[in-house]
Specification:
Elements (H helix, E strand, L loop, with lengths): L2 H15 L11 E6 L2 E6 L13 H20 L2 E7 L8 E10 L4 H7 L19 H13 L3 E4 L3 H20 L1 H9 L53 E7 L4 H19 L4 E4 L7 H11 L4 E9 L16 E3 L3
Parallel strand pairs: 1-9
Antiparallel strand pairs: 1-2, 2-4, 3-4, 5-6, 6-8, 7-8
């Protein structure tokens, strides 16, 4: 491959990576390029200081970025040779991705790649349109490909419990100054020029009531921020689903991020979007309660609502020249 072609391919892979979802859109990653290898690193300055002490959510975010790189490279006709957590002495090094042999991209990979910049996180209610069972089965298969399990929560009682856990965690966190500072730090004012954090237009100005209600983060913190009501007035809770893993190591968190991103991209291709609710997973005892009482002992990595919405969503990302560096000679 010519050097200019290699550069173009690597730039496209990093461009795809930065469009991955991340907690509060912190974009907690950076990329170092050496020849035909990309090093994906966690950016400690962008980790939540209180809500993510263990780094679990940061590693899930980095796992989603890694999945986007893998998909992008295959879509461009190159296999991705991945090593996850390759160096115990460099805990910030999440993975290395080396350009492998030429491959013929399959139709599904091209479909997923086409959703990388289209996918958006939702922060309001959904329409009443149900998600077809066949699509839910496909989403579960996508998660399984990366070693995780996606479970739609069918029990009304279990949905109420998850909603109550989310509400309890949100209420406690809203009263805790340090938790609140994590959220305020990443809430963007209207017309802000920042290329990270949660845009004020990405959530409704007035809370949308669903039944049962899943508490939303208060990024506005009492200020009159938020999107126009007519764009964000759907009131269905949507389908509740939980992404779990059998173990709870750093490798599992990265795998969960890869599984999550495959699910989100496949869902986006069918116009299904996701709203995330991680409040209860940031509190050890509530996460453990959900694991033991609702999830058969598996570790919850993401609680989400899935559904259809007329809102196209707003996305902002840092340009790759802010997250990329060349380390080769």
């Amino acid at each position: 491959m010519r050097p200019e072609d290699t550069t173009k391919t690597i730039d496209a892979a990093i461009q795809a990576a930065v469009w991955a979802p991340s907690v509060h859109n912190t974009q907690p990653w950076s990329f170092a390029v050496d020849g035909e290898e990309i090093a994906l690193r966690a950016d400690s300055d962008r980790k939540l200081r209180v809500g993510d002490i263990t780094g679990r959510e940061q590693l899930i975010s980095c796992g989603a970025a890694l999945e986007n790189m893998r998909i992008a490279l295959r879509a461009m006709g190159r296999e991705a040779l991945v090593r996850v957590l390759p160096d115990p002495d460099r805990p910030a090094l999440m993975a290395t991705v080396r350009l492998g042999e030429p491959v013929e991209p399959d139709e599904h990979t091209l479909m997923l790649y086409g959703q990388v910049e289209r996918r958006r996180t939702h922060r309001a209610g959904f329409t009443d349109q149900p998600i077809p069972d066949r699509l839910l089965d496909e989403l579960a298969q996508q998660a399984a490909l990366e070693g995780a399990r996606l479970t739609p929560i069918r029990s009304t009682a279990a949905v109420r419990v998850l909603a109550a856990l989310t509400e309890a965690a949100q209420e406690v966190q809203a009263q805790a100054t340090l938790f609140t500072m994590d959220v305020i730090r990443w809430g963007r004012a209207p017309e802000s020029g920042r290329a990270d954090g949660v845009p004020a237009e990405a959530y409704p100005r007035e809370p949308v009531t669903t039944e049962p209600a899943f508490a939303q983060r208060d990024y506005a913190h009492g200020r009159p921020w938020g999107g126009e009501a007519d764009r964000l007035t759907a009131t269905s809770t949507g389908l509740i689903a939980v992404l779990t893993t059998l173990a709870d190591s750093r490798e599992d968190w990265i795998a969960a991020g890869q599984a999550l991103q495959r699910v989100l991209l496949h869902a986006s291709a069918h116009d299904v979007r996701a709203a995330f609710h991680t409040q209860s997973l940031e509190m050890v005892h509530l996460r453990e309660f959900a694991r033991q009482e609702l999830l058969s002992g598996e570790y919850p990595q993401m609680i989400m609502r899935l559904g259809f919405t007329p809102d196209e969503g707003i996305g902002v990302r840092r340009p790759i020249d802010e997250v990329r560096e060349d380390t080769g000679a």
